[in-house]
Amino acid sequence: MSLHRPVVDAVLIGAGSRGTFAYGTTALAHPAHVRFVAVAEPDPERRARFANQHALPPDRCFASWEDLLAAGQLAPALVCCTLDRLHVAPTVAALEAGYHVLLEKPMAVTPEDCVRLVQTSEHVNRVLMICHVLRYTSFFSTLYPPPMTVAMAAVTVVSWRRLRGLCGGQTIRRTLRRSRPRVPPSKATCWPSPPSAQGGPVP
Predict the structure, then answer these.
(1) What integer pLDDT is reported at residue 6 of this predicted model?
(2) What is the pLDDT of residues 17-71, one digit of tens each?
(3) What is the domain extent for residue 155?
(4) What is the pTM of this model?
């Protein structure tokens, strides 16, 4: 028995590389799941490119997120892919306009703005989801296997680095440490399997 789910219509704010080639191509590859019905992008060439890829009519293409939101709610969902420092204003406005929002990381560039986004989402009872896809990868599930224990919850800072072309062509999977300073690439450790099994550094 298959569970049929309707296609989710969404609008996009920011048709740069991430909006076009990550979310846009994903929608094109999975038309039974998501469909973009409008775009807001200040660059006319990028806006036209996205419109052509998704067959958007001229009245669904906007030069600013303000113009898009002024047109009324065009879909239940909105994907925000503006520049990092410009995440907050369009996301707050979109939530208040009734959209559920998928927001590209980072959520915001200040703790205060992060709090503001969460409070707005809760106040208007709309979903705000940050696109931290790495939480679903194998190394995060290894580090934090469910259910999370008190000892695991005590690990508050995890820095990792993924580099290619080193360690005999293998991918450098991750470098985990407690402190915030970055580990120079030359000191990264290649772990083809979980670090605990290799005797490498662990948090």
Answers:
(1) 87
(2) 999 999 999 999 999 999 999 999 999 999 999 999 999 999 999 999 999 999 9
(3) 136-203
(4) 0.69
| Both tokens assigned to 125 | 């009872």
Q: Is 183 left (phi over 0), alpha (psi -120 to 50) or beta?
A: beta
Query: Rounded CA gap, 14 and 102, in Å?
Result: 12
- pLDDT score for 157: 56
8 Å CB contact between 5 and 76:
no
Q: Read off the tokens for 45.
A: 């060439």
The Cβ of residue 178 has, within 10 Å, a number of other Cβ atoms equal to 12
Same structural domain, 151 and 125:
no
Residue 28 sits in a domain whose CATH number is 3.40.50.720
Residue partners of 191: CB distance under 8 A and separation at least 6:
172, 173, 174, 198, 200
- Average pLDDT of the chain is 78
Is the Cβ–Cβ distance between 131 and 106 less than 8 Å? no
Residues 25 and 90 in one domain: yes
- Position 5 confidence tier, pLDDT thresholds 50, 70, 90: confident
